[in-house]
Specification:
By secondary structure, this protein is α/β, with parallel strands linked by helices. The chain is built from 11 helices and 9 strands. It has a 5-stranded parallel sheet, sandwiched between helices. A 4-stranded parallel sheet has the order 7-6-8-9. Strand 2, helix 2 and strand 3 form a beta-alpha-beta unit. Helix 5 runs antiparallel to helix 6 and helix 6 packs parallel to helix 11.
Length: about 300
């Protein structure tokens, strides 16, 4: 019997190198090695096609750092036999040398999985796994907060943990609402830095929606002329707009308040002079349960800046 495939279509249309870099960032790459870091979500939609009734998988391989977090958060961790080398959370996840970005079908099959969860297909991964009779679920990076809830519910349904997934979604929604109460960031502008070449995420993206919950205004919105959601800003633009807050999603790549201040002209900016340059961790690139942690980090920064 042919194994079911549950696909999330990728939405392309940008130079391959940029897309790959943003896809890597979207999946929250980076860990103790510090070679890369989480930055952005939004390369793929998360509306899957259809699901078929089937026994809950007992041997899952996760090649998505976000899916790994979801699986353990809904109580399906015991069904996970291996995760990719970027699945740095939770600590008990069975990390392996498997890569979600340069996957090897034979290495994956060596774990004898009945389900492989991925966020990215380089072109032949789904074909190779299904040819071996292995089920595949592809959940791309979130475009909206609702995609988080949809992916959690989907993994709950597929793994036999629907009730736990529903409870998790309710908890996330409640905690986000509590953090956003009163919109503590109203009246403040911000710049979210994906990398040192000044790619950023606008309010139309998943991350932008989270910032907006606090009432923060995104300086990149007017610069997104084609509506892609991830414009590359010029240094002159950022300096001229002069945001109140700067958030560095590339901190794991070595960027810091000091490196920002050392950029030509940036030491004149309000955020730099006021010490309102904030480092973000890998939660800035993962759209699973820890979006609550991400928003809590941003809120703490707002409170520090306004306190």
């Amino acid at each position: 019997m042919e194994s079911p495939v549950f696909r999330t279509p990728l939405r392309l249309g940008r130079p391959a190198a940029v897309l790959l870099a943003l896809t890597l960032a979207a999946a929250g790459c980076g860990g103790d090695g510090g070679s890369s870091g989480g930055a952005v979500s939004g390369i793929a939609t998360t509306t899957t096609t259809t699901t078929t009734a089937a026994p809950a998988p007992s041997s899952i391989v996760s090649l998505s750092a976000t899916a790994t977090e979801i699986l353990f958060a809904i109580g399906a961790g015991d069904q996970v036999v291996a995760v990719d080398d970027q699945s740095t959370y939770p600590a008990e996840a069975p990390m392996s040398a498997l890569s979600g970005f340069t996957p090897n079908v034979e290495s994956i099959a060596g774990y004898d999985p009945d389900l492989v969860v991925i966020s990215y297909d380089p072109g032949d991964l789904v074909v190779g796994l299904t040819a071996l009779g292995i089920g595949v679920l592809m959940q791309g990076a979130a475009n909206a907060i609702d995609d988080t809830y949809a992916q959690i519910a989907e993994l709950g349904d597929m793994t036999g943990h629907a009730d736990e997934a529903a409870a998790l979604n309710e908890s996330i929604a409640d905690e986000l609402a509590a953090l956003a109460e009163g919109q503590p960031g109203a009246g403040l502008t911000y710049f979210h830095e994906i990398d040192a070449t000044l790619y950023t995420a606008t309010s139309s993206t998943f991350l932008g929606q989270l910032y907006a919950m606090l009432g923060l205004e995104n300086i990149a919105d007017p610069a997104d002329e084609d509506g892609w959601g991830y414009p590359q800003l010029s240094p002159e633009y950022v300096i001229d707009v002069d945001p109140n807050l700067i958030f560095l999603a590339d901190a794991e790549w070595g960027e810091s308040a000091e490196t920002v201040a050392a950029r030509p002209g940036w030491d004149t900016m309000t955020a730099v002079q006021a010490g309102n340059v904030f480092l973000l961790d890998e939660t800035a690139g993962r759209w699973g349960p820890r979006i609550v942690d991400f928003l809590a980090t941003v809120k703490a920064a707002v409170e520090e800046a306004t306190g």
